[in-house]
Design a protein that fits this description.
Layout (H helix, E strand, L loop, with lengths): L1 E8 L19 H16 L6 E5 L2 H10 L5 E5 L7 H8 L6 E6 L3 H9 L17 E7 L12 E6 L1 H9 L3
Parallel strand pairs: 1-4, 2-3, 2-4
Antiparallel strand pairs: 1-5, 5-6
């Protein structure tokens, strides 16, 4: 059986209030635009999550809301807030749906994407994973509890700047 993971970093957050706790920072205008564009990209490519695993931070929650895609099951996980790859793997192993969207933070999410992929995405921004970067990976497993590092096949990788440019200049 095949399982699909949509791995996304939160969109650009606001630094307008330096006294605001990091966990409570919302998206800025560019972040909301980027998230909406990435939601359109997901829809255009028929990537529809059945389950969401999301950090509890405001910027990850707002990124998800701005995507405009629905997930059948939504789980906000404290463990995903600034999590490392091992923690993210543990949370992913508890997923139940065939297609999962995981929303998190750098630097952990970039490292997690690299660790999951058998071969990295052929894109110069894959290793630094800019805000709202998204990797779609396929796994030949029966259950998420079977997922391991280096098992995923990268199906797609996109960053908002390129997606927005393509949406503005369709060919």
């Amino acid at each position: 059986m095949s399982r699909t993971l949509i791995l996304m970093r939160h969109a650009k957050s606001s630094w307008d209030d330096f006294m605001q706790p990091d966990h409570a920072r919302p998206l800025n205008a560019r972040g909301r635009t980027s998230a909406a564009a990435m939601g359109e990209w997901l829809t255009d490519n028929n990537y529809f999550p059945d389950e969401l695993l999301c950090s509890t931070a405001e910027r990850t929650r707002e990124t998800y809301a701005s995507l405009g895609v629905l997930a059948a099951t939504t789980r906000y996980e404290d463990a995903l807030y600034h999590a490392g790859a091992d923690v993210m793997l543990g949370v992913l192993q508890t997923a139940q749906a065939n297609t999962v969207l995981m929303l998190g933070h750098n630097p952990g999410i970039a490292y997690f994407a690299e660790m999951l992929a058998h071969k990295p995405a052929n894109h110069p921004r894959f290793s630094d994973y800019p805000t709202c970067a998204t990797t779609v990976l396929s796994f030949d497993i029966d259950s998420w509890s079977d997922v391991k590092f280096s098992q995923g096949t990268v199906l797609n990788f996109a960053i908002p700047r390129e997606v927005i440019a393509a949406q503005s200049n369709p060919t």
